[in-house]
Amino acid sequence: MCDTLGVCVTPLTCRHCGAVDAPVLGPGSGPHAARAHCRHCGRFVQWLPRVRVQRKEVMSVGSVNRCLLVGTISKYGVEVRYAPSGAPCASFTLVLVETDKDGAGST
Ligand SMILES: [Zn+2]
Question: What distance in angstroms lies between residue 54's CA and the mean position of ligand 1's atoms?
Answer without folding.
Answer: 23
